[in-house]
Amino acid sequence: MNDSIIRLTDVTKVYGSGLRATTALQRLSLDIRRGQFVSLMGPSGSGKTTLLNLIAGLDAPDSGQIHVDGDNLATLPDHRRADIRLRKLGFIFQAFNLVPALTVCENVRWPLEFAGCSRTEARTRAKEALDKVGVHGRDTRYPGELSGGEQQRVAIARAIATSPKILLADEPTGNLDSHTGQGILDLIRTLNDAQHVTVVIVTHNAIAATYGDRTLEIRDGQIARDVRTPPRGHLGLVKGAGDA
Q: Residue 180 domain-assigned?
């Protein structure tokens, strides 16, 4: 039985043309199995974010194939790729990307309502997701009233509220201090362990990379190293929403 949830085969992505052409990925092949926690590392411009965007179906390769949970993204129309993003993928960004004019609960609810949930069900599932990430009693607050750590927890709640199979994170601790960032990484790892969500995280932080089962070093659009991390011990309880 094939346990692969993400598979890239000879994927090449080039931006621009002629003398201005930049090769972001070059004949890259990769298999990520279900439930794995993979860290992507490498210098700026190495192709990490391009790889994340291709897995998400936000961009298309110039050649090669990308399979996500059995679907070949290259053969799907835009609306089908959008449906996969909505129902199978969760996103965490460095800048949180919360909507300032919406409350905490509304920020977590809207992807659920967009996916077809009733308002009542969306509210229930949003509160459950907020509980999982340790955000309590802040449903009616606005993002600007929260600390950076709390905002990122809300962003994670939004990402997991739809019960995605894959969680994609682009520098999720980049705007946080080291203590708060560690709490966020502990939370993502706990979600990976408890719910078997496949995690792919882009990071420049060597410590953050140790949270994964596997670290891929990307250089010049190719995988320079593929390192398997020894199993981590018990991470302890998820910190509460009071972390700054």
A: yes
Q: What tens digit of pLDDT does each residue of 223-239 get?
A: 999 998 765 544 433 33
Q: Count of domains in the chain?
A: 1
Beta bridge partners of 28: 11
Alpha-carbon distance of 189 to 212, in angstroms, equals 8
* Residue 240 covered by a domain: no
What's this model's pTM, rounded to 2 decimal places?
Answer: 0.88
Whether the Cβ atoms of residue 55 and residue 218 lie closer than 8 Å to each other: no
Interatomic CA distance for residues 139 and 105, integer angstroms: 5
- Which CATH number covers residue 218? 3.40.50.300
Helix (H) or strand (E) holding 24: strand 22-33
The boundaries of the domain holding residue 150 are 36-52+78-228
Asked if residue 200 has pLDDT above 60, the reply is yes
Q: Does the residue 18 lie in any domain?
A: no
Residue 17 lies in a domain: no
Helices (H), the chain: 48-55, 78-88, 104-114, 119-132, 148-160, 178-195, 206-209
DSSP 5-22: EEEEEEEEEEES-GGG-E
Cβ atoms of residues 31 and 7 within 8 Å = yes
Taking the CA atoms of residue 210, residue 213, residue 217 and residue 218 in that order, the dihedral angle to the nearest 10 degrees is -130
